[in-house]
Amino acid sequence: MSGGEPFDKACASAWRYLRGAFEERYPIPPGVTPVTLELRGVRDVSHETASRDAQAILDYLTHIGMIAGEAPELPPLRQPATPLAACEYVCAPVSGVILHRRQIGETVCAGDTIADVLDPLGDRLTPLVAQGDGVLYARHWTRFATAGMLVARIAGRDAARRVP
Asked: Which residue spans of the chain are classified as CATH 2.40.50.100?
């Protein structure tokens, strides 16, 4: 389980339950192939990226046979796929202005500071430090963090979080 109750997992949970309860007596094939499409962040959308992303979705659907036609060859993965349970959520322990130090797509190592939170009243910097190695794949679009707010996400290699 990946945690976080994503839509694709919610759609598949009934089939998992049925297979777990009845598979010994009644083989039950997967009922759905759920996916969640992440269509960039609110500051990342343009006509060009939307058009390119839409074409990529159509190409993929053609590739898996859901749409008739010739699909172009799949591009190589930029990074190996990782389990969602290997994602590190970097939260701000204090409120303040977010000063990013690393860019989306950069590889980070445990101990790297990926951002600082500047308390504008106390003029104090609080570093946000990666706990594990991975790729920084998401940053919050706001520039001001509240205490406890999710600021960034890092895709690690090994499942580290315990999820129900």
From this structure: 84-155
